[in-house]
Structure prediction request, 490 residues.
Amino acid sequence: MEPELRRLVVVSNRLPAALKKEDDGWRVKAGGGGLVTALAPVLKNRGGLWIGWSGTSDPPADEDALLADFSSEAGYELLTVPLTEQEVEGYYYGFSNEIIWPLFHDLQTRCKFDPVFWRTYLDVNFKFAEVVARKTTQDDYIWIHDYHLMHQAFFLKSMGVKRNIGFFLHIPFPPPDIFMKLPWRGKLIQALTEYDLVGFQTIQDRKNFVGCLQKLMPEVRIEGRGAVVTVNMGTRKFRLGAFPISIDFNQFADMAHRPEVGQKAFELKEALRHRKIILGVDRLDYTKGIPERIRSIQTLLRRYPDLSGRMNFIQIAVPSREEVDEYKELRTEIEQLVGHVNGEFSCPGWVPVHYHYRNFPPEELVAYYAAADIGLVTPLRDGMNLVAKEYCACNISENGVLVLSEFAGAAAQLQKDAYLVNPYDMDGIAKALHRAFYWDKATCRDHMSKLRDQIRKNNIYWWVDSFLQAGISKSLGDFPEVDTVNFARI
Prediction:
C-alpha cells in the first residue's frame, strides 16, 4: 500500500515573496509573474511548502522572521536557498537568462555560451537539491518549476534521495535544430530524463522534446497516445505530458464585476472619449514583441486613415531586469518608437499611443482589461502567455476581441475563437486590427463567450489536477485545506 502524501512542495528559482531594502529597513514584497499567479492559490492553507531564493545575495539577519510573517498571511511555508552574488550572476543572469531563455525562445543569436555559466548553474542546482533533500520527506510530492532548476532530479538521485518528483517547463521547448546548438545538450537531456514526470505547455513542446531525446538517445521508445505518454529507456520509464497552464478565472472575473473596478474602467473610457481601446500588457522582455507591435500600430494608422482619432493603443510594460543593458536598450527603443508614432499621427485632442512603464495594482490592471475593446497579445515566442487568458476573463461585457500571436502557447487552446496573427507581420497585424475594429457585437460576443468558457473550464485548478493526476494519480483535493482557525489554537 502506497504511503499517503503529506504535502505538496513547490521548488522554483524565486520565492513568491522578495526581500527589498528600503530607506527604513527591509521589506517583504509579494512576487509577481505567471508562476506566482498560478501556484499561490494552490498552496494556500494546504500545509504546502515553497522552496526558492529570496531575491538578495546579502539578506538581513532577521530574514527568517520577515518571511515567516509573509507565510502566515499567505497560508504556506517559505524556505530560502541562499545564493551569493557570484552564483546569481552565473546561474541566473548567465546560464538561465543568457543561454536557456533566448535559446528556448528561438532567439539563439542572443546566446552567450560561457562554460563558467554552465558550471555555476550545476553548483546552484546542487545547492537547491541539498535543501530539498534535507527539508522534505519521501511522503512529499516535489514539484520543480522551470528552466532554472532542470537538474534537481539528477542531483537528488546522485545523493541516493528517493522522492516523488515532477518537473514543469513554463517556457517553450525548442526543436532539435535549435536545441542541438547547446554545448551541454546531452547532459541537459539526461538530467530531464531523471524526473518521474516532465510537463510542457503544449503538445508541440512535448514533440520537440521527444525529437531532441530521440536524436541524442536513439534507443528510447515512446509508448501511448494523447496528452501524456511514457518514455521507455530500457532500464526505466518516465512520463511526458502537455499541461497548458492557466489562471484563476473566477478571481479575475469577480474582480472585473466589482463596482469600483467597473467605475475605473468607465473613467478610462471617458478620459479617452469612448474611442476604441487596443491594449497590450507585457513584462518588458525582447520575446514579447513590443517594438514589432508598436510598428504594427504605425502601419495600421498609415494604411487605414479611417481609424484616425477613433482608437487608442495602450501599452503597459512591467519593469523587468532593469539592471541588464539589453533590457535598458529595449526600453529606450520602445520609448523612441512611441515618440515617433505619436509625432507622426497626433492631432489636437488625440494622441494615438499611451505608454506606461510601471507596475499596476491588480484592480487597476483589471479595469484596463475590462475597458479594452481589443486585446493585442503578440509575443515573438511564449510558453503560454497568461495575459491572453486574463484579458478574456476580465472581458465581462463579452464585446472584446483577442488578437493573439500564433507563436504563443495559448494559441493551441484558443485558436478557434482568437484572431491569430504572425507577430513579425506588421501588415497582417494591421489588417487584423482593422477587421476587429469593425466586428459587430454579435460576432464579438460569440467568439469571446467561447474563449471565456474555455478558460473557465480549463482554469488553474484544472492545470494542477491534470499534472498531479499524471504524476501521482492524485488531485488537488488530496491536499485538503487546513482548518486554520483550529490549527492556530493547537
Summary: The two ends are 30 Å apart (CA to CA). Residues 483-490 have pLDDT under 50 and may be disordered.
